[in-house]
Amino acid sequence: MKTPRAVRGSPGPPLLLLLLLAGARIEGFRPVVIVHGIFDGPKQFKTLSRFITKVHPGTEVSVIDLYDDLNSLKPLWGQVKGFRKAFDSIALKAPDGVHLLCFSQGGLICRALLSVTPDHNVHTFVSLSSPQAGQFGDTQYLRMFPDCIKKAVFRVCYNEMGQDLSICDYWNDPHHRARYLRSNNFLPVLNGERPHVQMKEWRDNFLRIKKLVLIGGPDDGVITPWQSSHFGFYNMNEDIVEMRNQEFYRSDTFGLKTLDARGAVLVCVHSGVKHIEWHSNHTVFSSCIQKWLT
Hints:
Blueprint: H1 13-23, E1 32-35, H2 46-55, E2 61-63, H3 76-91, E3 98-103, H4 105-116, E4 122-128, H5 153-157, H6 177-183, H7 187-190, H8 199-206, E5 211-216, E6 233-234, E7 240-241, H9 247-250, H10 256-261, E8 265-269, H11 282-289
Parallel strand pairs: 1-2, 1-3, 3-4, 4-5, 5-8
Antiparallel strand pairs: 6-7
Helix pairs in contact: 3-4, 4-8
């Protein structure tokens, strides 16, 4: 924020203090950009937008209106390209930076956006119940595979046709690790699990953020395992491997370990919150989100 302009005269200490306090917020709060999840759109985020503007009056909140509803099933790299264009038009008008708040599948889109965007000005990235380490489980979203169970979905996802469905871009089958690394064209690349020539550039871009807030909980009912919202995931025995024991963390392939070493990774766990309730739950907002959107 800019330093407050000097005031003529010699105001007494109480007045000077008031002026300094006012000056600290003379430019208001940073804009908040929201990216929705799968089968969602802007209308699902009216409550969250109201939460933000009530506690931080004057905040510019933009819910990007792209890839809504069934269009959210389109391949993620294409969505990243579209969301990046919309994001850039907002961020360019915010010289002090913006906050990025992204729900569910949108959290992966945002992490990819941050990775491929040089010189972005995102201050805080809030990942709200997002399958950051992937998805592997029977949820309501698997209704698109009516004759399949989770152990067979890889047959659909890990081929050229499957990679045209967004959910397949982060389907992470721990029993078919080699095929996931070879055939999934989104998550292994984003995580640096499949090496590529842009890894260092993407890592540097991602590390421009000041805070990473990871929010999720055991009663989500959709993100499976729920610890994926905190970068935890199953091993081949379907036991949970926590974030700091994941290979992409230990190798610091995309900068997560470096962020954590800075004290920039914040984890928030809430029980009793179902997946579609995260963005309308005031307790979640007040305890996990509000203080990072200044």
